[in-house]
Amino acid sequence: MERSTFEGNKLLAALPGEELETLGPHLEVVSLRLKEILFEQDVPIEHVYFPISCVVSLTTTMEDGQIVEVGTVGKEGMVGLPVFLGATTMPLDAFSQVPGDAVRMASKALRTEVHPGSGLHELLGRYTEAMLVFASQSSACNRVHSVRQRASRWLLHTHDRMGRDEFSLTQEFLAQMLSVRRASVNEVARAFQGEGLIRYSRGVITVLNRPSLEAAACECYSKIKTEFDRLPS
């Protein structure tokens, strides 16, 4: 497979040509459907994924059935960090929140081919650190910032990862990801449309005014973005 096939993912694109060539036989491009499950909590993780044009949500399910998003992964990273860290399962679900392509690799191949001293091992170590910052900052954000600020941050992160102004997103899904009532998201979406920040129609969001959307977000967006921008590209 040509190197250009993998350049949509920031981690794979940063690998030396020789190492990517070695990993090549273990990599395959797959198309992920909306809400396609990549792995489930406490079930062995069979594959890891390097998103190219999709965005993946990591969620946990509470005892009352409420689903709470704890992280998202796009073209900057890899889905399946527990495998890199030596685990075989994790107490989370992973599914595609925005459909698109990803590079898939068997967990067994990751364990055998990615070892200390390799380029991907170093990159995944740095990516793990960035994800810890993401998780801790998001936790603080969900506790102290408004739905408007959190929705802005979420939309900006998705916009960054998609690399285009238009992407699929239902209000029901966004409400689930922010752990708020759908009515709250509906109110924010109407306000954003009225201010000319976005256009929302039939489950499709179009970002119209990114600078104003950034102004509506809290400082958590820039802190998280800065951390991921430090990753090699």
Q: Keyphrases for this structure?
A:
single chain; 233 residues; alpha+beta; Jelly Rolls; Arc Repressor Mutant, subunit A; 2 domains; 4-stranded antiparallel β-sheet; 3-stranded antiparallel β-sheet; 10 helices; 10 strands; 22% strand
Write a structural description.
The chain is an alpha+beta fold and 233 residues long. It folds into two domains: 122 residues, Jelly Rolls; 85 residues, Orthogonal Bundle (Arc Repressor Mutant, subunit A). Helix content is 44%, strand content 22%. The chain contains ten helices and ten strands. The strands form three sheets. It has a four-stranded antiparallel beta sheet with strand order 2-6-4-5. A hairpin with a 5-residue loop joins strand 4 and strand 5. Helix 6 crosses helix 9 and helix 7 crosses helix 8. It is globular, with a radius of gyration of 18 Å. The relative contact order is 0.15. The model has no long low-confidence stretch (mean pLDDT 90).
Question: Could you give the topology of this structure?
Answer:
Elements: H1 10-13, H2 17-23, E1 27-32, E2 37-39, E3 47-51, E4 55-61, E5 67-73, H3 81-84, E6 93-98, E7 100-106, H4 107-113, H5 119-144, H6 147-162, E8 166-168, H7 171-178, H8 182-194, E9 198-201, E10 204-207, H9 210-216, H10 219-229
Antiparallel strand pairs: 1-7, 2-6, 3-7, 4-5, 4-6, 8-10, 9-10
Q: What is the structure about, briefly put?
A:
The chain has 233 residues and is of the alpha+beta class. It contains ten helices and ten strands. It has two domains: 3-124, Jelly Rolls (Sandwich), CATH 2.60.120; 145-229, Orthogonal Bundle (Arc Repressor Mutant, subunit A).
